[in-house]
Each structure stands twice: as C-alpha cells, then as structure tokens.
Amino acid sequence: MAVLQMQRISIYALRKDRKPILEWIQRRGAVEINDALEEDNVFQRMDVSTQKAQIEKNIAASKQALEILNRYAPEKKSLFAVLEGRTEIPVEQANAFGGKSDDVLRVAHRLNERSKDIADCRGLIQKLQTQMEALKPWMNLDISMRTKGTKSTTAFVGSFPAGYTAGDLEEQIALLAPKVPVYAEVISTSQEQTCTFLLCGRADAQVLEEALRTLGFARPSSPTKTPPAERMRVLQERMEEQEQIIQEAEQEITGYASQRDDLKFLVDYLTMRSEKYDVIGRLMQSRRTFVLTGYIPQQDAGKLTQELEGQFGAVVELEAPAQEDDVPVLLKNNKFSEPVEGVLESFSLPGKTEVDPTSIMAIFYYILFGMMLSDAAYGLIMVIGCGLALLKFKNMEPSMNKSLRMFFFCGISTTFWGFLFGSFFGDAVAVISRTFFEHEVVLGPLWFEPIKEPMRMLIFALLVGVIHLFAGLAMKFYQLWRLKCYKDILYDVIFWYMLVGGAIVFMLSSQTFVDIAQLSFILPAQAGTAAAVVAGIGAIGIVLTSGRESRNPAKRLLKGLYGLYNVTGYLSDILSYSRLLALGLATGVIATVINQMGSMGGGGIGGAIMFILVFIVGHTINLGINLLGAYVHTNRLQFVEFFGKFYEGGGRKFAPFGIHTKYYKIREEK
C-alpha cells in the first residue's frame, strides 16, 4: 500500500524543440502540467484559443461522420468487443498519419454533407407526401383549383366541413340564396368533408359567397395551377427524385466503410492534438525558449530527466513539493490490492497526511463480499468467467482488467465461504439427487449451515465487524504514529480500544449475554471484572481528552461527554455487520426456493425440462441480484464503518499529460 512520492519538475528547452518534446512527454504520460509560473516581460503564454476551437470543431465533425458511417454500414463486432481493448499501433504509424489527416478530414466532411443531403431529402419527401395527401380528395377535378370562372360566370372551388351530396348541397344553397341559380358538382365526399365545384353568374357571386360562408365553405390553402391529377404526377416524380438522391447518398456513404479505421484514428489524432494545444497554451514561452512545470512520480523522474537531457538537450530541475502545494495523488499496489483502487477512488483519494488503505481494505473487501454471496457455485462461475476473460483478452483496458480481477478474487472468497456454509446452488445437489436419482446426496457444510444456525452466523458476522472496526482504529494508530502525534494515539485510539474491547469482554463474561447469543463458552467473572475496569478507564480517558482543544473547562467536559456518547456509534457500526447474515441467508434461501420450484415437475422427462428451465432462469436472476447487493453493501461497510474510524480523503487524482484516445493506443518500440 503506497501513495507514490511526487516531485516538482521544471523543464527548460528551446522553442524549436517544443513539438517533439511535448509529443514525447505525451507518449510517456508521466508528467502533470500545472500553471505555477506567472507571466512577465520575457515569458508569456500563447493564445491558442483559435486553434483549439478549430480542432474541437474537427473532432465533432469526425465523430459525427463515424456515427453516420456506423449507421449506414454497421461495423461487425464480436460479443466480447468490450473486453478486447483498443488496437495497438506503433508510434511510427501514428506519426505518419499526420500526412493524410487532411484527406481523411475531407472524407469526414463529405460524409456529413451526404448525411445532410439525406436529411434534407427526407424532409422534402415528408412535405411532398403532405401535399399529395391534401390533393387526394381533388383527384376527380379536371381543371385547375385556382379557376375563378369566365367573363360571365364565377367559379368556387373549395370544401365544406360536412358530408353532402350534390342534391343536398343545392338544397342548402337554395335556402340561403333562393334567387341564385347554381351549378354544384361534388368532387369527393366523406363524413368530415365535402370537396365541391360551384358555378354561378358573375352578378350573383357576392350573394352566393355569403351563403357559402354561412355553410362553412373554405377554399384550398394551396390550390394548384394545374389539374390535381397532373399536379399529383409532378409531386410523385419529385418524390422519386428525392428517393434517388437518398439512395445514391447512402451508397456513397457505405462506400466509405473501408476508411472506418482512418476515421477512428482521426478522432484519436485530433484528440491528442487538442490536448497538446491545451498544454501549449499553458506553457511560459519567450522568443526562443519555453518552460514547462508540473509534477512527476519520483520513481519516473530520474529516467525521464536522463532521456530529456540526452535526446533534446533540455534542462530539467527536480525538487520536493512545498507543504502548501496541491500535490496530486497516485497509488501503487500489488496485484491483489490494486483491483479495489477504483472503489477507494469512488470515495476519495488519500489526503496529504493519510496513508493508502487499499491493501488492508482489499483483504476485508474480498472477505465481506464472499460472506454476503456465500454460494460455492456462484463463486466458481465468477472465478471461471473472470479468469477466462483475463487469460484470453490480454489487451483489455486497465480499468476493465482491474474490475475483472476484483470480481475474480471476490469469486474465490465466495467459493470458500460457500463450501464452509454448505451452499452449492443452494441445496441443488440434494434436490437433484432426490428428484431424479431417488437417492439423496447432501453436500454438507465444512463448518456450519447459516440457515439452520442463524444466531451462530449473526455472532460470527458481528465478530468480523469488530475486527474490521478495530483494523480501522489500527490504521488511525499508524497514521498518527507517522505524524509523531503520540498523545493523540493514546487519546483517540488506545482509550477507544480499552472502552469497546473491555465492554465486549465484559459481555462475554455475562451469563445473560452468553445465553442470548447461544455461545458455547463463557469467560470467567474475574476477566469480566478486569474488562469493566479497563473499559471504565477508557471511558474516563475519552471524557477527559475528547474536548482537549477547548480551553474552557466546562466546554471541555461537555465535549468529552459528547465524545463518550460516540460509543453508541460503535454499537450501531457493529450491528451494521448483521447485513452479512441477511444477505448470506437471502442468497441461500432464494436458491433453495428456486430448486424446490424446479423439482415440482417430478422426475420424468417433462420434470427434467421444467427443472432445467427454472434452474437456469432462477439462478441467473438470483446471482445477478445478490451480486449487486453484495457489491453495494460491501462498499457501504468500507465507506461508512471502516473509513469512518480513520479516513477522510480529499486527495486530488494525478492527471498526467498523456494519450487519452478512444480507439487506438500508441506502442513505442523499446
């Protein structure tokens, strides 16, 4: 368990070497750049906002082009693509890409243009379809919808909001305009609308128009110059033209499928350039030189200094960070502990005066997870699945690798506790042998069966909780020892060990507690008396020292009493570990119920089929639900109970200037 020591690094070099130096540092990914220096008359920062904006615009265009290509020409991926990781390419190939990046960018813009053409055509097709739908009721009209009549007549082309026959319509008009002779022709009719052509003398046009308005007459919103049937043919031809454009555009887009890899690398290439320009904008530069400052892990500083000075003639200064510096945090652990670094990081990285708790945390994490899931078969599934993935996919991303290794170790712990508690798919062995072979074979526990002895399991869970909490106090002891705060060790650790430990020993000497807990032993009364004395001394010490920062005696006493009240927090923390019993029982009980449900079909072929289906579906759901539950509650026991005794966090993660690509990773030949 270690928080790597950091050093401040300052690099001085010629401005003409800026590009190769920055690219070299970026590939190493070992230096976090900061803005520690102030501008003066000689050294100033460069404004790269214009270049950054253009690069970000090109990145967006490239990503959009790749999405378009994947939409019209989907990439074939294996089921395990998420485990395969990014493709490795040599640094020479990455550097050579710069010569053709402009050509690939033009392809990206072309893909975006063709996609826009498709979108425009589809929008126009939708409009044409709307127009064609509006024309359908007028298809029997053989003249223009804009017809106004002749010198002596006036024509009305429009619709009524009701269903009419020609006779009904003439009758309604006659009631409203009895002296106006009208010719009425119904073009189409439905319950909601009647499309008509009306003709009257020009002198009667105004009277007829008022009558028609009374009946709700309305002219077409977009009347055609030509007869509707002819207009329909024109619209159909235009729609076919748009469909043809869409087809040609889609074919052109799919034709770029061979350049998918180039588009992917273009996204990564531009991302690297964007990060590089971000750093350039933070450098202090004069006319001929530049200065870069930041942090580097001490273990990498010597080699990087040697390479920078040897290859580029740069000058490198290294120094220890000042006490007030905001130093980033980088953890380094062994293969066993490293997988749970992500869990720690999700809470918070260690602060300046804190140690890395990952190694101790990992031990308890795997133990607690296994106790909560506690089924040997489920554990073996996790071990085999994660193990095979780790063996087969060597190139997977580090974060995925850590997650699989974490669940691999959790699976080992689950298998261990499953055999101790006698659970293998619940009681599947007994149910299968009894139902299908008429001879019951029981896979007994190597220790005891929690379902039959829940109180024993509860006491064991609480014991594990006490050990976990005391380990947290031990971590606090270690942190205070490193800081040489020896009095604080007595006040904040030893007294609590005395109080809580003494209280536990005292209870173990009480016949009442032993009977309730169903323990098979009891400590001597003398041990209980001695434990009570130790606990009392611890309590007095806590009262006298918890408020030691206050000079007022009354406030100090009140704070001391409040500090002693925190013993109830220890009680609630210990009781929190009863979830080990609850989740462990839940896994076993649900598995047993699933087995019983599956065996309800009997021992025949039909019963076997039913059992297999219920078994697979039921245990898959049970494993998924309880796997999630074990993960969540194990995290909670670490974050609340364990960390609550010594850990505050607040560290800032080390964020080096590096290559943060999505599709490819650069391999530099050694």
Strand content: 5-15%
Number of helices: 23
Give the end-to-end Cα distance, rounded to a whole number of Å.
Answer: 29 Å
Globular, elongated, flat, extended or rod-shaped: what is the shape? extended
Q: Biggest sheet, in brief?
A: 5 strands, antiparallel
Could you name the ranges where pLDDT drops below 50 across 5 or more consecutive residues? none
Tally of strands: 10
Based on helices, strands and strand pairing, what is the structural class?
alpha+beta
CA gyration radius, whole angstroms? 40 Å
Helix amount, in percent? 55-70%
On the 0-100 scale, what is the average pLDDT?
93
Quick rundown:
This protein is α+β, with helices and mostly antiparallel strands.
Structural features, described:
This protein is 60% helix and 9% strand. It is of the alpha+beta class and 670 residues long. Strands 1, 2, 7, 8 and 9 form a five-stranded antiparallel sheet that branches. Strands 4-6-5 form a three-stranded antiparallel sheet. A hairpin with a 3-residue loop joins strand 7 and strand 8 (289-297). Helix 19 (525-545) crosses helix 20. The longest helix is centred in the last third of the chain and has 38 residues, at 605-642.
